[in-house]
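Q: Please design a sequence for this.
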């Protein structure tokens, strides 16, 4: 959906999000990366396959990181977790004339983590599927420098037991997943504004819910009329 991607429809954020719902992507037969990832998740759920929606940054062939973020997926197949980018695997858009060309590319289905991290950086470090994740600053380096870092870390002590951590993550409810992911993201990248906002909203909602419970209990108390 080139028009939505280039923000030429004049839609507000809520309308843009609505267009990326799985049923809308199917109906319209187009979408941006969020729509591809949402539809892939929905198809996996309908098939009894565990999948996770991933958001983050990408790097183009010239090493530049676009301002607009990207979305892709993790999927658990045959007992292991794998990376899939259905958007990049379906075709490409010419940035000069804005034309989209459908072109299936199987390289973005079950891509090795050491390959995917060269141009895909998830906000949540666990979603890199690397025992020792790259930092944002390391990702910004050129391709050769990143490959050198990865080679040097092959014998390093793991920060994450990736499979066990992801298996535990998907057992959480959606709100707890969101909080868990934001907490891990901020712990790894304290300057990540989306994760900081997410933590703030989660804690605000939790505090509001607790206040409502206390208020209901307070309203239910019988007060002695002699009390001040």
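A: Design:
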């Amino acid at each position: 959906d080139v028009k939505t991607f280039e923000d030429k429809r004049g839609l507000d954020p809520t309308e843009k999000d609505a267009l990326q719902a799985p049923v809308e992507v199917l109906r319209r037969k187009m979408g941006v990366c969020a729509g591809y990832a949402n539809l892939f998740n929905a198809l996996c759920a309908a098939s009894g396959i565990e999948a996770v929606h991933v958001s983050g940054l990408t790097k183009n062939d010239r090493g530049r990181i676009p301002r607009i973020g990207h979305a892709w997926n993790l999927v658990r197949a045959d007992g292991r977790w794998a990376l899939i980018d259905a958007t990049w695997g379906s075709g490409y858009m010419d940035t000069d004339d804005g034309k989209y060309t459908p072109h299936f590319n199987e390289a973005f289905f079950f891509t090795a983590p050491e390959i995917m991290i060269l141009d895909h950086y998830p906000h949540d470090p666990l979603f890199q599927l690397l025992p020792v994740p790259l930092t944002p600053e390391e990702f910004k380096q050129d391709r050769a420098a990143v490959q050198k870092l990865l080679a040097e870390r092959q014998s390093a002590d793991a920060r994450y037991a990736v499979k066990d951590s992801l298996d535990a993550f998907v057992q959480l409810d959606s709100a707890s997943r969101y909080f868990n992911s934001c907490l891990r993201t901020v712990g790894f990248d304290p300057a990540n504004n989306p994760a900081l906002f997410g933590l703030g909203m989660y804690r605000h909602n939790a505090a509001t819910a607790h206040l409502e419970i206390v208020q209901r209990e307070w309203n239910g108390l019988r007060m002695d009329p002699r009390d001040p």
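Q: Thanks. Anything notable?
A: The radius of gyration is 21 Å. The chain has a mean pLDDT of 89.
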